[in-house]
Amino acid sequence: METKSPAGAHPVSVDTGEKVDGYLMADFPWYGLDEAFTGPRRLMHAGVTPQGTVEHGSLAHGEEPTIRVEKVPDAERFTVVVTVPCRPVRRSADGTGVLEATSVSSAAWLAGSGLLNCTWPAQMERALRQDWLDQQTMLAWELADDLTGEAWSELTLPVDGVPTPFHYRESEYGWVLAGSAGDGPDGAHIGAYGRGMSAYGLGFAVVKDIKAYEG
After folding, report:
1. 186 three-state secondary structure
2. Which residues contact 183 (CB under 8 A, 6 or more apart)?
3. Are the C-beta atoms of 48 and 25 separated by less than 8 Å?
4. Staple 164 to which of 9, 159, 204, 206, CB 3.0 to 4.6 Å?
5. DSSP characters for 22-85?
6. Which residue(s) pair with 194 in the sheet?
7. What is the pLDDT of residues 171-194, one digit of tens each?
8. By C-alpha distance, which of 113, 90, 110 is closest to 100?
């Protein structure tokens, strides 16, 4: 299937086969929580174009969120880390146009929309959730394109032990953050979202063995 991602990302085909295969195809490093986190880890999905280029992916830490009609599951404790490779403006696969460069906003939007996808507002009827999700997803896009706006604050967290600045915001559904690690073609934009786990105590690191997330 395809997903459309604004804020610098573009339509991708989501890997639906052997999950780890999509991650192994990536030409960039994956980021997850560092060794201070000792809870369960698992793969979510890697976004892969029809040409086989990996555009982004997510790794989950902690409990698996469950969407419930009656209330937002406040007791859940989880953090999902999104990795987006640093890529410049480039030609589209069919040669008919150009693709925007990836940016911190790309990671912020993917993280914001990810949080929404595992959220069901209290007392909302099933028939109304898709309208709510569409509206809130557009808002997440607008917020991601305005990282210097009032909705965001600054938060410094370690990435491979190096203090790194992140943009951070909270909502009634959880928190979202986004920043960058590394420079040039080997760099990546890191997004994260979570609920029940404080973002202030987190640290990120390059994943040494992605198969450790197979669970």
Report:
1. helix
2. 86
3. yes
4. 159
5. HHHT-SS--EEE-TT--S-EEEEEEEE-TTS-EEEEEEEEESPP---SSS--TT--EEEEEEEE
6. 79, 175
7. 888 999 999 997 666 789 999 999
8. 90
Smallest CA-to-CA distance from 84 within 62, 100, 63 is with 100
Q: Where are the domains of the chain?
A: 2-99+106-213
How do residues 117-176 score in pLDDT, each as one tens digit?
888 776 677 778 778 888 888 888 899 999 999 999 999 999 999 999 999 999 888 999
**Sequence-ordered list of residues with C-beta below 8 angstroms from that of 122, at least 6 positions apart, any chain:** 70, 71, 72
Distance set, CA 61 to CA 27, 46, 194 (Å): 23, 16, 9
The number of residues in the chain equals: 215
| DSSP H/E element including 165 | strand 162-171
DSSP structure class, residue 104: H
Tokens of 28: 């960039």
pLDDT for position 93: 58
87-99 per-position pLDDT tens digit: 876 655 555 665 6
**CA atoms 90, 88, 84, 160: torsion sign:** positive
Condensed to tens digits (0 to 9), the pLDDT of residues 64-94 reads 876 654 444 556 899 999 999 998 766 555 5
